[in-house]
């Protein structure tokens, strides 16, 4: 139904795993030629703050999701066969309730046996997705199969994500959910506790001087709107010609942006008071995204625009 751009995720992943450099399926066995390699899938609106690996055993740097009752769940600390990892997302068990699982995956699908508790603990996931090639390929095949069927019943933004959850449940691949893989939603849990020790007056210096060993989330995911003072960032408001030789870089926010205790809603032009924590998180996102986008634009100009910078 309609034009849904995000089919490219399941279709693209499956195609790449079957045809990409270093990838490929053994025609004799139908399995990946290198099943042990770890595959990491992120969204295009994510920027790396530090590398993503397969080892999540460092309790100081990794926040593993606990049950809704605050209890530790049994999980592995490393990505292995049968043990994929992914970021914790907040859409609950909608992948179960918004579609007819039996109609999409079959009346004998193992996904039908997943309880609500199991769904919230092991399958309510989103990118970054991390799995061995064996597991990622198994998921990708069913993801590509289920995505159009899910979208047919639920023609909305999260259809492909729900299809991934369904594919993981169908292939009996429960995930370890990692809260600290990303920051995206200010005011949510995610990886914000890792950034708690950054002084407010350093928030807008921090994203531009990342070090691999820093105790930070792995990615910054700019899928929301961010506001601090009169500064605003929304990915859909970024000029379509930003990555051109002619377009200037984004204005650099002030270093004290986190000290501003209000935000201005673009549509209403009125000040809304925000707390210290919210101001710090909003400023981190605005400053960080400005750095990443300007760095990317500078790189583009250096490679494609003779004599043009800034």
From TrEMBL:
It comes from the Eukaryota. One of its GO terms (molecular function) is glycosyltransferase activity. This is Uncharacterized protein. The lineage of its organism: Eukaryota, Sar, Stramenopiles, Ochrophyta, Bacillariophyta.
């Amino acid at each position: 139904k309609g034009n849904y751009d995000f089919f490219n995720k399941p279709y693209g992943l499956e195609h790449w795993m079957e045809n990409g450099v270093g990838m490929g399926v053994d025609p004799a066995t139908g399995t990946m030629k290198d099943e042990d390699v770890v595959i990491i899938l992120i969204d295009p609106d994510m920027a790396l703050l530090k590398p993503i690996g397969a080892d999540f055993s460092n309790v100081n740097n990794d926040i593993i999701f606990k049950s809704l009752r605050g209890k530790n769940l049994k999980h592995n600390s490393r990505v292995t066969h049968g043990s994929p990892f992914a970021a914790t997302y907040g859409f609950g068990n909608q992948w179960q309730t918004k579609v007819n699982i039996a109609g999409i995956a079959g009346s004998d699908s193992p996904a039908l046996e997943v309880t609500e508790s199991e769904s919230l603990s092991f399958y309510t996931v989103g990118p970054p997705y991390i799995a061995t090639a064996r597991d990622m390929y198994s998921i990708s095949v069913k993801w590509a199969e289920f995505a159009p069927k899910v979208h047919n019943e639920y023609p909305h933004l999260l259809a492909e994500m729900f299809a991934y959850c369904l594919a993981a449940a169908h292939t009996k691949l429960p995930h370890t959910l990692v809260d600290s893989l990303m920051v995206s939603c200010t005011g949510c849990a995610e990886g914000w506790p890792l950034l708690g020790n950054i002084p407010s007056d350093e928030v807008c210096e921090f994203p531009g001087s990342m070090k691999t060993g820093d105790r930070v989330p792995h990615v910054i995911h700019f899928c929301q709107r961010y506001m601090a003072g009169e500064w605003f960032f929304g990915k859909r408001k970024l000029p379509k010609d930003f990555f051109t030789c002619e377009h200037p870089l984004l204005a650099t926010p002030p270093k004290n942006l986190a000290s501003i205790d209000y935000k201005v809603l673009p549509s209403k032009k009125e000040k809304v008071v925000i707390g210290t924590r919210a101001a710090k998180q909003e400023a981190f996102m605005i400053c960080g995204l400005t750095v990443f986008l300007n760095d990317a634009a500078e790189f583009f100009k250096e490679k494609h625009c003779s004599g043009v910078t800034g």
